[in-house]
Fold these 2 entries.
Entry 1:
Amino acid sequence: MGRTLAEKVWDTHVVRAGGAGGEPDLLYIDLHLVHEVTSPQAFDGLRLAGRPVRRPDLTIATEDHNVPTQDIELPIADEVSATQVDTLRRNCAEFGVRLHPMGDAEQGIVHVMGPQLGLTQPGLTVVCGDSHTSTHGAFGALAFGIGTSEVEHVLATQTLPLRPFKTMAITVDSAETADGALPRGVTSKDIILAVIAKIGTGGGQGYVLEYRGSAIESLSMEARMTICNMSIEAGARAGMIAPDETTFDYLEGRPHAPQGADWDDAVEYWRSLRTDGDATFDAEVHIDADSLVPFVTWGTNPGQGLPLSERVPDPGGITDDGERITVEKALSYMDLMPGTPLREIAVDTVFLGSCTNGRIEDLRAAAGVLRGRSVRDGLRMLVVPGSMQVRAQAEAEGLHEVFTAAGAQWRSAGCSMCLGMNPDQLAPGERAASTSNRNFEGRQGKGGRTHLVSPLVAAATAVRGSLSAPDDLD
Amino acid sequence: MQPFTRHTGVGVPLRRSNVDTDTIIPAVYLKRVSRTGFADGLFSAWRAEQDFVLNSEPFRSGSVLVAGPDFGTGSSREHAVWALSDYGFRVVISSRFADIFRGNAGKQGLLAAQCEQPDVELLWKLLDSEPGTQVTVDLTEKTVQAKDLTVSFSIDDYTRWRLLEGLDDIGLSMRYSEAIADFEIARPSWMPTTTPVRGG
Ligand code: SF4
């Protein structure tokens, strides 16, 4: 019987099959990404046991969660942050792991750095002590987040004992266009917000999601990464997209991509990484691309999203007690009145960045909207490139001038306002339109309120001051 | 992980039940970047009280903790086990352990030995009347012996086997080092490594 993409990648990585006794498979890991927050105890565990890192040459580290995005030449002011960053530096030096520290030309958010270096390739197994490792699935890699004990396990053995995941197909296609082009103003962020709103934040639990269909095939690598990135927001272990010409074009010539005859061998193999016609998924979901519109969240989890043209939901109409209470709680935290048009929700801050939407295309899209316009008075907009390389590229294209001329702040690379762990945070009660991935209570700072949006909506919102799409601008 | 077959050390009577993991190690100690150095935080609230058992010799240097029922309840923090081990405990005896604590202990090489409550009370009596009594815990025989008292304990077979072999999860995978090495030889040569390129 045929196999799915996920099963093909799994099968080629089984070092030792688990067998009937319930023992898990031992899976080989091709690429291990490391950052400062989830690695210190893992390195410490190695030290205690007197174990080396088995494959430093398959391991790479960066500083992202704790780093400030301005005045980066100064020491980090926050003591806990500074300790975590210092610890990573010492660990990488001691164990021989390549590290891109703050200020380095390749430094950036771990999930932006791997693909841009060409390290993330089709058919690999990729792990990181970070849930958004699912991002790398956009290349047809099996990529998933792990805990600190597992980080230590991979450092020591380059393997993980695991039981196979279930598979779910998410097909996004268009009846109206032959090439799967998305409706005007719709981006891959809107696709994934619509998927999560449809299947729920737990809908993907235990599954690897494979995104397929003409609308997915029409997307750039950056856009595919945005979708796979948020698979975890549907509870999934991983998200994947079969590699194709778009993937190969993106990879060719990158520093760690195969070259010459190796390149041909690799591409030949990568072409085999498609779900077989007779393969079956454990579950299937269909999304009609033609019906997609810009999506925004109104609540406190990524599943609480609606088309921008809708209104804040009314919990009064919900019959299920549990669900009504959930909605009431979310609205009370978000300080929103039922029935308010989403377009009338005014924000204080716009954040463009994160491993979801901090890539060059995202910056280009937002700059396209902001060119010749200004950020509304009194509103703060942070533009934070996902990596120093994205920053350099944007500057080469003059995008930073568009942002600063519009009144936005142009920053250095890092996780920034995606999470309240570094100086970029919302004040209590402050409301943001954010291109990141989580709108949990307090995620962007204690008491902060988050609406998840696409880069296009972020830019238009910065101009109008309330949630908007580019078409709403004059 | 060190193989565990038999351990002899000073027994510490902890006459309390429902010792939760917040008591074993309070949350304020969790911000650390290391897995060691948690000994300071072990039972920190109780150690501030003068008559707490670990504040007196010879219990201070004990390594076999004999506790009341329901040991290790509450938060799942692995730090509770790290703190006990770091302080020097190799064995905790109780008539009932919280599941997650028992699991974490097994992963980290701390023996959670389950004895009947009447046997725990006999041990307490002995340790109180003769402070500093050496207790021998034998994992092969599944017995606890102190002076002329010998009682048995229970532990699940899988954890017992792993402790006897000294295999943590990593150790278990390492038994397949040869298979891992073979797998590595067969990987295509074009697969990426992180070794700097372009003089980087
Ligand atoms: S940008 Fe946000 S989601 Fe991505 S790695 Fe950083 S903190 Fe995590």
Entry 2:
Amino acid sequence: MMKRSRHIQWIASKKTPQCKKCIFFESDPAVIEKTFKGLTILSSGYGSVRSDDGLCLILNRYLSSRDSCGGYIAADRRHTDPKVRQQGTHKLPLYHVYLHNY
Amino acid sequence: MNSSISQNASSPKPSIWKAFLSKEDWWAVWLGLGIVFLAYVFYLAGSSISWIAVAPAKWSGFSDLGGQLAKNGIRYIALLAGLLALFTLITSFIGQKPRDFIRSFLFIFFLSAIIYIIGSWDQASKYNLEPPLLALALGLFISNVIGLPKWLDAGFRVEFYIKLGIVLLGATLPFTLIMWGGPIAIFQASIVSIVTFLTIFFTARKLGLDRRLAAVLGTGGAVCGVSASIAVAGAVRAKKEDPPIAISLVVFWAIVIIFVLPFVARLLHLPTGVAGAWIGTSEFADAAGLAAAQSYGGLADSHLGISGTADQALASYTLIKVIGRDIWIGIWSFILALISVTIWERTETNSKVQIGQIWWRFPKFVIGFLVASVLTTLIVQGNSLEDYNAVVKPALITPITSLRTWAFTFSFLSIGLTTRFKELANAGLKPFIAFTIGVIVNLILGYFLSVAVFGDYWANIITN
């Protein structure tokens, strides 16, 4: 816990772009609806109240797309993972890994 | 201190147009106001949209019903075609696959038509066959006992249908009612929201739950159910596991209350306006509360000793729930985000609290509700009561009311069809205790304010 807390503090201390365009940020309403089981019963992933919030796949938090941290990696940058590079896209493989790990 | 309130100049400006096309709130506004506008154009031309806004009339026997369906069959098909085209277009804009949506909506429309027809039977209330409760019960039975393929979920858009219905509801309520009743609704709802939130939050903290989870649970019980929980979860940077806990608890209690509140109100013979206010104060989600309020309002004409009208139940419910509670979600989110970054997490993050979230998280369908109310009030203004009842109501208001009832029925049915109890997250004992204590406080305080304090006002609320 302390380790994570220090990590967050460290990454937060640097001025970085917002989570919105980070490779680890997932705010697709369809994905949010799948992740939060039962959300569509009395609400929706497409509603205004949710704004553009999404999941941070690293910190395991649900947060605003306007947040930021030092762990930011631009979504349009090629990931270093060779498997991901081969597929030419980052969001889907990361999300795939994420869904199966949590 | 690392935190600050700001309207960060370096933030990329959110695309206004993108929100207009990707958020179902805005689509409910466009479609709802479009229907009102079309109805007005037809009305000005001396005609009406009533031909396509078909609804079953009261029937007493199968021959009567058969005659109705034979006569109006083509109108039902036209309504289905119109709604299917519009809804498919809209849902494809927000990301649904048209093929799945079309198949799913056909299923929803067919079941809704059956429910609407059963609800129009002149003996329906005698057998407790109120359409909202019937829709919900049927949906729950199908999804939990029979089971449905997942792809059918594409058409079960509870929130879109309910938001569209609320915009259309605005067109049937005079704006003067909102102006006069709004402040009372806000006052009553604010008392209950604050007390309920604090009850759940501090009970959860006492039980050792995380502050963020306590806040997510608290707003779920105090403001507007799952939508409030998800909004505040983003604002306070909740753990990924927190929203599903709140979702499970809100859904469980919301469904219990849909059945219990109308039942208790009926036992107490509460006037429809009073019961609507109580439901608006104590139910969590818009769709769930509307099911309960519409169900109770439907008892007004059934000789059960319940005074008032069906419209009074809907009007008082909507004033308290939409005007009194829903529109404050952005402010709740802002305050909790501020507390989160200045007190709870000051050593963990330098995230900024942006005041803009009061608007970003504002439930935009409320704008459509208010605009529709203003439009209709302006249109109706200048007509005598006789003219209103003889001309304006049948040509303009009744068809909109009929379409509103269709939208609500789609929503109530979708609640049942999407509720699969075994798929909901296990909330755990401590969150359940904290939330349940909040529910009990909410129900008692909601009853006291709706009946003892403001009972006279809600019982006599004027809806036309």
